[in-house]
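Hypothesis: this fold can be encoded by more than one sequence.
Test: take the C-alpha cells below, design a sequence, compare later.
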C-alpha cells in the first residue's frame, strides 16, 4: 500500500486549485468570459423549463413528494410550487436540465455543466435567504458559475477527457461533484482549507454507470446525483467536517488513481491538467451548446445527413430513401462507444437520443432532430426503423475527434450511385453557437412555457448579472413561473 501524501510535501494540484479558487475575484476574469457565461446560464434555464414537466421528470417529482412532502424545505423545485431540502431540490432541478438532451456539453472533457452548477447554486441562494445568512449578488453568482465551468473539465482532463466515457463511466457524474463543490464553496466564500475539504467529500461520492443510456430513466438524473453530492459536501465542509486531503493525487484510493485504474493509458492519469494554466486558459471556451435534441456524439451524424440532403436532394428524397441498401456511419472511438450501438425496436426516447443510427434515420425522414422527433408516437415508425435496420456504425480511429462520415449505398438497378458526406466538426463546435443563437434558442424554447413579461425579466437579470444586487430576484422569477405544461405530453 502506498503511503498517504503528507502535508509538508510540495503543493500538488488539489491545493493549487483550492488556492486559486479562493484567490479569484470578478475583476480577474476576462470580460469575454463573463459575457459567455451569462449566455450559457440562460441556455441552462431554458433547458430546465423545457424539462420540468416531461413524463420522467413528473415521475421523479411524484416519487420525491412521497417521502419529502411539499413545504418540508427551503428550496424550490421549479415549475412545481414545491419546496424541499437544498440537496433534493438540486437533484430534481438538475434532472430537468438533463431532461431532453438539449443542454450544454464540454468538447474536451464530457460533462453537462449547467445541470451540475445552476441547480446547486440556486438551491444555495434560496437556502441562505431562508435562514437569513447572507445576500448573494449576481456578480458572486456569476463568478461561482465560472469557477465551476473551469473545474469540471479540468478534473475530466486529469482522466484523459472522453476516455472515461468510452470505458463505461458516466463522465459528467464522475467529474461533476468536484465542479459543484468548487462553485458553491466560492459563492459561500470558504477559505482554501475548507474548499479542499469540500472537494475531498465531493470526490468520494463521484460515480455513474453509462449503461444508464440503454432505456433507463436514471441517466437523466445522474448529473443530479452529482449536484446533490457536491452541494452536501460543501455544506459539510462549511460546518467543519474534514474531507480527504489532496484527494486528486493521493496514491492509494485517490480520485485520479481509482478512476483511471486499468484504463491502458500511459500514464494512467494526468494530475497537472487540473491546475495547469489556471486563470490563463479558460475552459469555458469548450462549453458547447446544442442545436439538436440528442447526445452530442450524434450531432456530426446529423450534420453529415444534412450535408447529403443539401448536395443530393433526389438521392435522399422520399423515393430515394426507399431504394437504400445500406447506411454506414464512421466515427471515432468516443462517439462509437457512446452512440454506435445497434438498437432494437422499440426504443425509449432516451435510448433514441443516445443512438447514432436512430438519430440519422430521424434526420433522413423528418429533416429535423428536435423535441418532436422523440415524442412517444414518433418512436415506433416503420419508415424510421426501416432505415435503422439498414444502418451500421463503424469505429474509425483515423478520423479526428469530432469528424464523422455517412455513406449511403443503393440497390442495384436503382440508378443511384453511392453517396457520402463527411464533416470535421459538429455544428455547435465549429461553428459554435453564437450568443445571438443562444438568445434565440432561449426565446424559442420558452414560448408557451413562460409568460412574455416573466421571460423578459429573467433574460434581463441573467444578461446583466454583474448589476444584480440580490440574485434571489432570479430565483423568485423562476418560482413565479409555477406549473407548466412542459415540452410534450405522452
Amino acid at each position: 500500500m502506498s503511503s498517504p501524501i503528507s502535508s509538508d510535501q510540495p503543493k500538488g494540484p488539489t491545493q493549487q486549485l483550492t488556492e486559486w479558487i479562493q484567490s479569484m475575484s470578478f475583476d480577474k476574469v476576462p470580460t469575454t468570459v463573463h459575457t459567455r457565461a451569462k449566455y450559457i446560464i440562460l441556455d441552462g434555464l431554458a433547458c430546465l423549463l423545457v424539462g420540468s414537466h416531461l413524463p420522467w421528470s413528473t415521475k421523479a417529482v411524484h416519487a420525491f413528494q412521497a417521502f419529502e412532502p411539499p413545504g418540508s424545505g427551503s428550496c424550490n423545485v421549479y415549475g412545481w410550487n414545491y419546496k424541499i431540502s437544498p440537496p433534493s431540490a438540486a437533484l430534481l432541478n438538475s434532472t430537468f436540465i438533463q431532461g431532453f438532451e438539449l443542454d450544454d456539453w464540454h468538447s474536451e472533457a464530457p460533462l453537462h455543466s449547467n445541470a451540475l452548477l445552476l441547480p446547486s447554486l440556486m438551491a444555495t441562494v434560496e437556502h441562505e435567504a431562508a435562514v437569513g445568512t447572507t445576500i448573494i449578488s449576481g456578480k458572486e453568482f456569476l463568478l461561482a458559475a465560472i469557477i465551476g465551468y473551469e473545474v469540471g473539465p479540468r478534473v475530466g482532463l486529469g482522466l484523459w477527457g472522453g476516455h472515461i466515457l468510452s470505458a463505461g463511466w458516466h463522465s459528467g457524474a464522475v467529474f461533476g461533484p468536484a465542479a459543484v463543490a468548487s462553485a458553491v464553496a466560492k459563492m459561500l466564500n470558504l477559505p482554501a482549507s475548507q474548499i479542499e475539504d469540500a472537494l475531498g467529500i465531493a470526490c468520494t461520492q463521484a460515480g455513474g454507470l453509462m449503461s444508464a443510456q440503454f432505456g433507463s430513466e436514471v441517466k437523466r438524473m445522474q448529473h443530479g446525483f452529482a449536484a446533490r453530492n457536491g452541494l452536501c459536501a460543501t455544506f459539510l465542509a462549511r460546518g467543519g467536517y474534514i474531507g480527504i486531503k489532496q484527494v486528486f493525487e493521493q496514491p492509494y484510493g485517490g480520485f485520479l488513481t481509482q478512476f483511471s485504474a486499468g484504463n491502458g493509458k500511459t500514464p494512467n492519469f494526468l494530475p497537472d491538467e487540473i491546475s495547469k494554466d489556471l486563470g490563463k486558459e479558460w475552459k469555458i471556451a469548450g462549453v458547447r451548446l446544442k442545436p439538436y435534441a440528442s447526445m452530442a456524439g450524434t450531432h456530426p451524424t446529423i450534420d453529415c445527413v444534412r450535408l447529403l440532403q443539401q448536395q443530393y436532394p433526389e438521392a435522399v428524397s422520399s423515393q430515394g430513401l426507399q431504394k437504400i441498401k445500406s447506411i454506414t456511419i464512421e466515427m471515432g472511438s468516443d462517439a462509437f462507444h457512446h452512440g454506435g450501438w445497434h438498437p432494437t425496436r422499440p426504443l425509449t426516447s432516451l435510448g433514441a437520443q443516445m443512438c447514432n443510427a436512430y438519430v440519422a434515420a430521424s434526420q433522413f425522414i423528418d429533416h429535423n432532430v428536435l423535441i418532436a422527433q422523440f415524442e412517444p408516437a414518433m418512436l415506433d415508425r416503420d419508415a424510421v426503423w426501416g432505415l435503422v435496420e439498414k444502418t451500421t456504425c463503424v469505429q474509425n480511429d483515423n478520423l479526428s475527434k469530432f469528424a464523422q462520415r455517412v455513406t449511403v449505398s443503393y440497390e442495384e438497378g436503382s440508378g443511384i450511385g453511392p453517396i457520402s458526406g463527411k464533416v470535421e466538426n459538429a455544428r455547435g463546435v465549429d461553428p459554435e453557437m453564437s450568443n445571438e443563437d443562444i438568445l434565440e434558442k432561449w426565446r424559442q424554447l420558452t414560448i408557451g412555457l413562460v409568460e412574455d413579461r416573466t421571460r423578459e425579466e429573467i433574460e434581463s437579470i441573467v444578461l446583466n448579472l454583474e448589476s444584480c444586487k440580490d440574485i434571489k430576484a432570479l430565483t423568485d422569477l423562476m418560482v413565479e413561473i409555477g406549473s407548466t405544461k412542459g415540452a410534450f405530453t405522452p
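The longest strand covers residues 324-331. The two ends are 54 Å apart (CA to CA).
Hypothesis status: open.
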